[in-house]
Known about the structure:
Order of helices and strands: HEEEEHEEEEEEEE
Strand order of the largest sheet: 2-1-3-4
Shape: rod-shaped
CATH class of the largest domain: Mainly Beta
Number of strands: 12
Number of domains: 3
Radius of gyration: 39 Å
Number of helices: 2
Structural class: alpha+beta
Low-confidence stretches: 7-21
Oligomer: single chain
Largest sheet: 4 strands, antiparallel
Amino acid sequence: xxxxxxxxxxxxxxxxxxxxxxxxxxxxxxxxxxxxxxxxxxxxxxxxxxxxxxxxxxxxxxxxxxxxxxxxxxxxxxxxxxxxxxxxxxxxxxxxxxxxxxxxxxxxxxxxxxxxxxxxxxxxxxxxxxxxxxxxxxxxxxxxxxxxxxxxxxxxxxxxxxxxxxxxxxxxxxxxxxxxxxxxxxxxxxxxxxxxxxxxxxxxxxxxx
Length: 209
């Protein structure tokens, strides 16, 4: 009796060890004995989800499971491809908008320069640069008034000014880190420059024509 209990314990322990690492196969030998293995046999049963199923049914299940895995992977790859394409499309649209904006600024700049030359006025250009990403600007416009804008760096603006006019620009760093610079150009020549490297620092420059 003790030997029987010991044998049963060994079988249970073996079954537990096999199930912890792989599928359990219950195979029958020619003499009718039942053996448990972690390797498939031509005939017998396989333990699946706590139940014993025939080896044939299990193979069908494995085939279907493989198909489902392949289908899941295909859908995942398609979704990933669509997401990549969408990101590329958005980036291209953003780049196109940026090009259109730059072209517009270029045309406006050339138009202002031509108008200034035709009227015998000076061409003033405010230029904001530095390693900061954004800045809050205050500057004198063509009519002598004051304008304020939040912009991304780098930034520039061209306007007309006559003799005796005063030009002014200040740029406050919109971030805790980085530098911000301002430059005033008159007829293409830099006449004033200022830089700030402090947190949320302000660079200021002014000039009288």
